[in-house]
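We examine the record.

___
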Amino acid sequence: MSVARLTHSTGPNNGLVAKLGAIKEGYEESLRYPAVRAFAERAAMGPLGRPSLLVLFANLRSVYRYLPDPVGVELIKSPHVMVSEIKSRGWTAGDCDDAASLVYGLLNLLGVPARLAVGWKPGQSSPSHIWVRVPETTGNFVEFDLTKPIFNGPKSGYEAIREYA
C-alpha cells in the first residue's frame, strides 16, 4: 500500500470507511518493517529510560508538518513511508489522516491500544477531523493529535466524536 490514493467521496461520511481501512492497512503493512518499531521505541523513550506518550508526541511534533492533500485527492501515507521520510530528510508531512496513520501505527507497534477518533462539526454530514485516542485506566482518554500544538488538547467544537478500533 505505502501511499493509499482514495477516490474522493462527496456522500455522507466522505469516504470515512475507506480512510479508516487505509490507516489500519498501513499499520499492518508497517509490521513487516522492524525499523518502524525501532523508530517508535527510540522516539518514545523518556529521560528515565521508560516510554512516554508525551515524549513521543514532542518528538513526532518536531518532525511533522501539516500539509493538506491536493484538491480532489485523498492520500494516506503508511507509517513506514513517513518514518522513512523522517530518516532520510529529517521530517515528514501530511494532513490529519496522515498524522493519525503515523500515530496509530507507532502506538500500536509499541503495544499501546490506540483508537482512531473522528469528529463532525455542527451541521456537517461529513467528518471534519481524525486523530488518535489512547484509553487510560481511569476510563478517560488521552487525545494524541499531531496537527495540534499541545498534547492532550481538548476536542471542542464537534457535535459528534466517534471512536474506531
Remarks:
- Strands lie at 3-6, 64-66, 74-77, 92-94, 115-120, 129-135, 141-144, 160-164.
- Residues 89 and 121 are 35 Å apart (CA to CA).
